[in-house]
Amino acid sequence: MRVIHINFINFFWGVEESEVAGYTIYKQENDKDPTTWRIVPVYIKRLIDTAVSPNARYTYHIRATLTNGKYSLVKKVAVKF
Questions:
Q1: CA-to-CA distance for 31 and 58, rounded, in angstroms?
Q2: pLDDT in tens, 62-79
Q3: Domain residue spans of the chain
Q4: Residues 38-48: pLDDT tens digits?
Q5: 9-80: CATH homologous superfamily?
Q6: Counting Cβ atoms within 10 Å, is residue 1 exposed (0-12), middle (13-18) or buried (19+)?
């Protein structure tokens, strides 16, 4: 038997790009306050987080920056690692 340990969280998203300029992703660990984790251009649709610990809960908050300078609503994704 082989056991393979995966030490990362891999996530991706897809949206209509016509009005999106980029994304800001915030990372929250357990009950701590969220902090800015990544700011990425519109063509990035997949990220890998290797700074994770076993038995931790992570919540990623994703917000699009629109081409008109406004922001989308925040989408949240929670992961128990």
A1: 9
A2: 999 999 999 999 999 999
A3: 9-80
A4: 999 999 988 99
A5: Immunoglobulins (2.60.40.10)
A6: exposed
